[in-house]
Protein: Isomerase
Organism: Streptomyces echinoruber
Amino acid sequence: MPQITVDYSDTLAPAFDRAGFARVLHTRLVEIAAARPEACKTLFRRCEFTAVGLGEEGHAVVHVTVGLLAGRTDETKAKLTEAVLEALREHVRTDLVALHASAEVRDLDPSYRKSETPVRR
Protein backbone atom coordinates (compact mmCIF):
# COMPACT_ATOMS: atom_id res chain seq x y z
CA MET A 1 0.00 0.00 0.00
CA PRO A 2 -0.37 2.33 -1.80
CA GLN A 3 -1.04 0.43 -5.00
CA ILE A 4 -0.75 2.71 -8.03
CA THR A 5 -1.64 1.82 -11.61
CA VAL A 6 -0.91 4.13 -14.53
CA ASP A 7 -2.58 3.32 -17.85
CA TYR A 8 -1.27 5.43 -20.72
CA SER A 9 -1.49 5.68 -24.51
CA ASP A 10 1.28 4.00 -26.45
CA THR A 11 1.91 7.27 -28.29
CA LEU A 12 3.01 8.90 -25.01
CA ALA A 13 5.90 6.49 -24.40
CA PRO A 14 8.66 8.83 -25.63
CA ALA A 15 7.05 11.88 -23.99
CA PHE A 16 6.32 10.43 -20.53
CA ASP A 17 9.05 10.49 -17.89
CA ARG A 18 7.68 7.54 -15.95
CA ALA A 19 10.57 7.23 -13.48
CA GLY A 20 10.40 10.93 -12.63
CA PHE A 21 6.62 10.75 -12.28
CA ALA A 22 6.85 7.77 -9.92
CA ARG A 23 9.45 9.51 -7.72
CA VAL A 24 7.34 12.66 -7.42
CA LEU A 25 4.13 10.71 -6.89
CA HIS A 26 5.65 8.55 -4.16
CA THR A 27 7.01 11.66 -2.42
CA ARG A 28 3.59 13.31 -2.53
CA LEU A 29 1.94 10.15 -1.19
CA VAL A 30 4.29 10.32 1.80
CA GLU A 31 3.58 14.02 2.35
CA ILE A 32 -0.18 14.01 1.78
CA ALA A 33 -1.38 10.52 2.74
CA ALA A 34 1.25 9.50 5.32
CA ALA A 35 2.40 6.56 3.19
CA ARG A 36 5.76 4.94 3.84
CA PRO A 37 8.14 5.43 0.89
CA GLU A 38 9.04 1.74 0.71
CA ALA A 39 5.33 0.85 0.57
CA CYS A 40 4.66 2.87 -2.61
CA LYS A 41 4.43 0.67 -5.71
CA THR A 42 3.57 1.88 -9.20
CA LEU A 43 2.70 -0.31 -12.17
CA PHE A 44 2.77 1.33 -15.62
CA ARG A 45 0.61 -0.22 -18.33
CA ARG A 46 1.23 0.95 -21.88
CA CYS A 47 -1.99 0.71 -23.89
CA GLU A 48 -1.50 -0.24 -27.51
CA PHE A 49 -4.68 1.50 -28.62
CA THR A 50 -6.70 4.31 -27.06
CA ALA A 51 -9.50 6.31 -28.65
CA VAL A 52 -10.77 9.79 -27.87
CA GLY A 53 -14.04 11.05 -29.26
CA LEU A 54 -14.69 9.61 -32.69
CA GLY A 55 -11.08 8.54 -33.11
CA GLU A 56 -9.41 11.91 -33.66
CA GLU A 57 -5.64 11.74 -34.03
CA GLY A 58 -3.24 13.70 -31.90
CA HIS A 59 -4.82 12.74 -28.57
CA ALA A 60 -3.38 10.68 -25.74
CA VAL A 61 -4.84 9.33 -22.51
CA VAL A 62 -3.38 8.80 -19.05
CA HIS A 63 -5.43 7.46 -16.15
CA VAL A 64 -3.92 6.97 -12.69
CA THR A 65 -5.58 4.86 -10.01
CA VAL A 66 -4.26 5.07 -6.45
CA GLY A 67 -5.48 2.44 -3.99
CA LEU A 68 -5.03 3.22 -0.30
CA LEU A 69 -6.00 1.43 2.88
CA ALA A 70 -9.24 2.89 4.23
CA GLY A 71 -9.13 5.77 6.65
CA ARG A 72 -8.12 8.82 4.58
CA THR A 73 -10.57 11.70 4.49
CA ASP A 74 -12.26 12.82 1.29
CA GLU A 75 -10.23 16.03 1.56
CA THR A 76 -6.97 14.06 1.66
CA LYS A 77 -8.04 11.97 -1.34
CA ALA A 78 -8.98 15.10 -3.32
CA LYS A 79 -5.67 16.77 -2.46
CA LEU A 80 -3.82 13.64 -3.58
CA THR A 81 -5.80 13.47 -6.83
CA GLU A 82 -4.83 17.06 -7.63
CA ALA A 83 -1.19 16.23 -6.82
CA VAL A 84 -1.33 13.30 -9.26
CA LEU A 85 -2.63 15.54 -12.06
CA GLU A 86 0.01 18.18 -11.28
CA ALA A 87 2.76 15.54 -11.40
CA LEU A 88 1.46 14.34 -14.78
CA ARG A 89 1.63 17.90 -16.13
CA GLU A 90 5.25 18.05 -14.92
CA HIS A 91 6.30 14.73 -16.49
CA VAL A 92 4.44 14.47 -19.80
CA ARG A 93 5.46 16.58 -22.78
CA THR A 94 2.23 17.89 -24.26
CA ASP A 95 3.62 19.84 -27.20
CA LEU A 96 2.91 16.93 -29.54
CA VAL A 97 -0.47 15.67 -28.35
CA ALA A 98 -3.62 16.79 -26.60
CA LEU A 99 -3.41 15.06 -23.23
CA HIS A 100 -6.50 13.71 -21.51
CA ALA A 101 -5.36 13.05 -17.94
CA SER A 102 -7.45 11.70 -15.09
CA ALA A 103 -6.86 10.31 -11.63
CA GLU A 104 -8.80 8.47 -8.97
CA VAL A 105 -7.93 7.75 -5.35
CA ARG A 106 -9.94 4.92 -3.83
CA ASP A 107 -9.97 2.73 -0.75
CA LEU A 108 -8.61 -0.76 -1.19
CA ASP A 109 -11.07 -3.55 -0.50
CA PRO A 110 -10.90 -4.95 3.05
CA SER A 111 -9.76 -8.25 1.52
CA TYR A 112 -6.48 -6.63 0.34
CA ARG A 113 -3.36 -8.49 1.43
CA LYS A 114 0.22 -8.36 0.24
CA SER A 115 3.19 -10.68 0.24
CA GLU A 116 6.85 -9.79 -0.05
CA THR A 117 9.69 -12.15 -0.73
CA PRO A 118 13.15 -10.87 0.21
CA VAL A 119 15.96 -11.03 -2.32
CA ARG A 120 18.07 -14.13 -1.82
CA ARG A 121 21.78 -13.65 -2.23
